């Protein structure tokens, strides 16, 4: 062939490829070729090339209705065949056929009557733009279905990472999966929002996000398609998983996707490409949590969650998950229990029987995504509770000997997890090491919590109960026992010198520090106006650096308290040496600040503090109880009861 003709062939191939792509997009076949339900894979004899399909469709239009009546075959899937040799003469495609002599001579009225008795012709693919517009009710139902479809695959991300981390030595049978991980920039390592970073040394905290992208294989598991969904992917499931340094428990906290948050300044995020854009979005209040992810991606979401929790997020795992059913089926199904049949307004009957029952992947998908269960009546929170109980059961199944001792099953389970995963600071070696350290943890030491909210605001956002949320994460940071938690008694004892939760202990003497090096906050809890300001003046006269004066956020207190966080014991004792009868209390969240709470028992007397470099008297230091909300939603992974 003359080299000069090569570009012409390439151009023809390109145009043929473009025509192929356009035709595929216009078709609306059922099964993997289109948007409908799965169908059998076509045999080689079923398959046709694009050109043959065009020829077939053309002949259908050319043929008379009588000829169409005998046509009972269905249009097969479109499959790509090798590009034909363009030097050969292309096959003849019939033009529009003229009527036969018999049809031409047939009276019009008789011909119309004959055609009316014939069955309708086979349905052909609709062209884009010919569908009638949806009604407002239909659009509303479609939006609800879209929101529900994406839950299943993202929920399993959480149990997948837990199962991966807790398989321990079984990882020795697995081949390396690092190459499957997609790397993404997400972490904020130098954040000032981390509470008591010294106290979190050795902890491992994962932010796990399931997104609702409709691209690729996700549309085949009921997620809808990219064409049906406007905008970027949003975070449908967000869980923060904390593993303390002593490796004696696992805590996973769920965040409602519509949680009202203050979005920080963020760079734009292109989910389709998995990269950040040059666009900068200013900080804004009253944003939905999932919208924050859609706009600013993993980095923006990490900043929001890290600020809200105070936990140092050291690992990010994001999943655009399409292997939900396969993972459930890989462990032989999952046992769930219900006291009432589950019927969803959109999905129909999910569980027709009550009691314990094992469900397969397809049923599990509906079980975890349903959010219109009339008997629950609490929308997203009923779904979150169901998800947590399902995850607990799936985790028990994944950690059972039937899976752990079967390298094939375990390998399949883990590979499904890594197939659609984008991460930062997550490697196979790290997970193996962490898994080995967690081998002594059973399901009873895995606790699921849900961030508490107080109704919705005018934008439909869930209003966070900030003080309760702070208490939850303080308990996690302090390794305080959680409701329903089942772990060894040794784990309930703090490694700090201040003793167990809510106890008082005598600590070793410290040496007094320079008052000018202490950042002091004075909070008035006495009920007497102006007392904090007067005390601040007196302490400043002794050289203390008074950074802030105000009212105590928790109201009044009968005791006068010097509060400090990890690493500030000497500073707290130095302040207490100037305040007679002050109680010293260790808390979370103050950083390097020392807080003096003026209680109703305060006499107003401020004395000279202990001289710098002088040994301080032994002190009784109380570790504050973390008071958790009474209505905290808790699910324990070891709980097999029916609810």
Describe this structure in words.
The chain is an alpha/beta fold and 643 residues long. It has 3 domains: 3-116, no CATH class; 139-326 and 381-490, Aminopeptidase, CATH 3.40.630; 504-623, Alpha-Beta Plaits. The protein is built from 17 helices and 25 strands. Helix 16 (531-541) links the parallel strand 19 and strand 20. The protein is elongated and about 80 Å long. The protein starts with 5 loop residues before the first helix and ends in a 7-residue tail after the last strand. Residues 1-9, 26-131, 144-154, 214-232 and 489-501 have low confidence and may be disordered.
Quick rundown:
The protein has 643 residues and is of the alpha/beta class. Helices cover 31% and strands 19% of the residues. An eight-stranded mixed beta sheet has the order 1-14-9-2-3-4-15-25, sandwiched between helices. A seven-stranded mixed beta sheet has the order 18-24-22-21-23-19-20, covered by helices on one side. A two-stranded antiparallel sheet has the order 5-8.
Topology, please?
Blueprint: H1 6-26, H2 50-62, H3 65-69, H4 101-105, H5 108-116, H6 136-149, H7 151-166, E1 182-183, E2 204-211, E3 235-243, E4 250-255, E5 260-263, E6 266-270, E7 275-281, E8 284-288, H8 289-309, E9 315-319, H9 324-330, E10 334-338, E11 342-344, E12 348-351, E13 355-359, H10 361-369, H11 379-398, H12 401-404, H13 407-419, E14 421-424, H14 428-437, E15 446-450, E16 453-456, E17 462-464, H15 466-477, E18 504-507, E19 519-524, H16 531-541, E20 545-551, E21 561-564, H17 569-576, E22 583-586, E23 593-598, E24 619-623, E25 634-636
Parallel strand pairs: 1-14, 2-9, 4-15, 19-20, 19-23, 21-22, 22-24
Antiparallel strand pairs: 2-3, 3-4, 5-8, 6-7, 9-14, 10-13, 11-12, 15-25, 16-17, 18-24, 21-23
């Amino acid at each position: 062939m003359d080299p000069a003709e090569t570009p012409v062939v390439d151009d023809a191939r390109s145009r043929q490829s473009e025509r192929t792509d356009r035709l595929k997009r216009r078709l609306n076949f059922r099964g993997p070729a289109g948007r409908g339900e799965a169908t059998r894979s076509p045999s080689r004899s079923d398959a046709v090339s694009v050109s043959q399909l065009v020829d077939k469709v053309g002949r259908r239009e050319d043929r008379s209705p009588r000829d169409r009546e005998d046509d009972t075959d269905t249009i097969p899937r479109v499959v790509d065949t090798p590009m034909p040799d363009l030097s050969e003469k292309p096959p003849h495609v019939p033009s529009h056929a003229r009527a036969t002599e018999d049809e031409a001579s047939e009276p019009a009225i008789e011909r119309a009557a004959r055609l009316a008795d014939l069955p309708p012709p086979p349905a052909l693919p609709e062209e884009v733009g010919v569908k009638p517009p949806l009604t407002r009710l239909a659009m509303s139902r479609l939006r609800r279905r879209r929101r529900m479809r994406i839950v299943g695959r993202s929920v399993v991300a959480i149990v997948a990472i837990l199962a991966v981390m807790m398989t321990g030595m079984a990882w020795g049978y697995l081949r390396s999966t690092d190459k499957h991980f997609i790397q993404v920039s997400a972490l904020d390592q130098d954040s000032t929002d981390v509470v008591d970073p010294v106290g979190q040394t050795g902890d491992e905290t994962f932010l796990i996000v399931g997104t609702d992208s409709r691209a690729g294989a996700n549309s085949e598991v009921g997620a809808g398609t990219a064409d049906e969904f406007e905008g970027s992917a949003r975070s449908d499931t967000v869980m923060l998983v904390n593993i303390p340094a002593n490796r004696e428990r696992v805590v996973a906290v769920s965040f409602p996707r519509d949680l009202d948050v203050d979005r920080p300044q963020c760079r734009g995020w292109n989910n389709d490409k998995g990269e950040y854009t040059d666009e900068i979005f200013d900080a804004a209040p009253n944003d939905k949590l999932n919208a924050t992810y859609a706009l600013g991606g993993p980095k923006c979401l990490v900043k929001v969650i890290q600020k809200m929790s105070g936990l140092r997020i050291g690992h990010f795992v994001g999943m655009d998950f399409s292997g939900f059913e396969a993972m459930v089926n890989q462990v032989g199904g999952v046992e769930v229990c219900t006291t009432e049949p589950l019927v969803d307004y959109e999905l129909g009957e999910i569980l027709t029987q009550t009691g314990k029952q094992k469900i397969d992947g397809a049923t599990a998908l509906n079980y975890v995504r349903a959010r219109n269960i009339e008997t629950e009546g609490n929308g997203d929170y009923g779904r979150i509770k169901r998800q947590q109980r399902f995850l607990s059961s799936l985790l028990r199944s994944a950690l059972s000997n039937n899976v752990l001792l079967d390298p094939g099953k375990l390998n399949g389970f883990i590979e499904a997890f890594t197939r659609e995963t984008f991460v930062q600071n997550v490697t196979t070696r790290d997970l193996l090491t962490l898994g080995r350290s967690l081998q002594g943890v059973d399901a009873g030491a895995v606790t699921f919590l849900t961030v508490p909210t107080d109704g919705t605001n005018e934008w439909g956002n869930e209003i966070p109960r900030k003080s309760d949320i702070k208490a939850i994460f303080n308990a996690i940071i302090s390794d305080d026992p959680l409701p329903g938690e089942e772990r060894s008694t040794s784990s309930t004892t703090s490694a700090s010198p201040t003793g167990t939760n809510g106890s008082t202990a005598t600590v070793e003497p410290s040496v007094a520090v320079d008052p000018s090096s202490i950042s002091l906050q004075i909070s008035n809890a006495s009920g007497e106006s102006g007392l904090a300001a007067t005390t601040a003046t007196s302490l400043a006269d002794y050289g203390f650096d008074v950074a802030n004066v105000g009212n105590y956020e928790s109201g009044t207190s009968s005791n006068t308290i010097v509060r400090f966080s990890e690493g500030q014991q000497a500073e707290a004792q130095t302040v207490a040496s100037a305040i007679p009868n002050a109680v010293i209390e260790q808390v979370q969240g103050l950083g390097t600040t020392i807080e003096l709470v003026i209680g109703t028992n305060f006499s107003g007397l401020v004395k000279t503090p202990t001289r710098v470099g002088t040994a301080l008297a032994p002190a009784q230091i109380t570790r504050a109880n973390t008071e958790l909300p009474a209505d905290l939603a808790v699910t324990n992974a070891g709980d097999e009861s029916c609810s």
